[in-house]
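Subject: complex prediction, re-run

Hi both,

The earlier run crashed halfway through, so I resubmitted it with identical inputs.
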Amino acid sequence: MSTGPESLGERIVAARAAALAESAAASTAEALEAWRVRWLGRRGTVAALFAALPEAAAAERRELGQRLNALKNELQGLYDAAASAAAPAVAAAAVDVTLPGRRRWVGRPHVLSQVLDEMLAIFTGLGFAVAMGPEVELEAYNFDFLNFPPNHPARDLQDTFYVNDRVLLRTQTSPMQVRIMRSQPPPVRVVVPGRVYRNEQIDATHAAEFHQVEGLYVDQRVSMVDLKATIAHFTRLLFGTDTAIRFKPHYFPFTEPSVDVDMTCFACGGKGCKLCGNAGWIEIMGAGMVHPNVFRAAGYDPEQVTGFAFGMGVDRIAMLRHGIDDLRLLLENDVRFLAQF
Ligand code: PHE
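This time it finished cleanly. Structure:
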């Protein structure tokens, strides 16, 4: 009946016994997989037994083949049962669906950017272009061309950060007035947003860096009426249609006449409250008619053109708009604060 020291029939019986014994010990997913490879894999024991089938006596082949198929099916069944029993445990180890998800933060523009965008949109709607200029500026543009006398206190080291004796961090966006006029002929309608620097003692209402929007309008026969109408339109759109403005005489070297612009307090409508310090009015910008000396420094003929300019603090307007009581919050980038806007 048999040909070798161990017949194929005997090898099938031995293989089955060994495979069953080993399967009981395969308790981990890795051990189970190793068991499958060893017994059912392409180079596993069952495959080797099938390969030996042609060597068996012709009369026994059919029966041995059936027994081998039965063994293969039995072992495959064992494997499938063990694998599906382990599956929930494997899945649970990979992903615990009861854990809270990982939060994805959604970003947004900084509150200052939001307010600045609103401000610029109002002016672009009036036909103003938007321009930007250098924060590291020549003293000539920041002071001399703007008609500051040589000994003006704003030039003092205590007020201005100097890079060297000719170069400084701009203290205002006004130097862009002359840069723009030097780069193009009139008419000019432009707003200039940007960061400015002053050597300040920092507290709730003072920072060493803050933001301004400069405005410049130059053409023939531009008057204070144009200035007032432009600013009134701006404050109504930004703070509400009930907002009124008033001009108070002021002094800037680069405008004549110069004014401080107040608007009615949008919190109390002018009656007086905490926000406006009971005044009913809030100061929002400096402005005036462009000084002839500034036109001259820019290469414009003050006999031919007139113009108005204004400058306002973006940080201050953002604080007013949103009731923010400490300027430092705008620079600290605490997400808990910024996420409110
Ligand atoms: N540059 C002035 C400031 O920083 C503001 C201003 C701009 C005033 C333009 C008049 C005209 O205070």
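The first strand starts at residue 129 and ends at 130.

- K.
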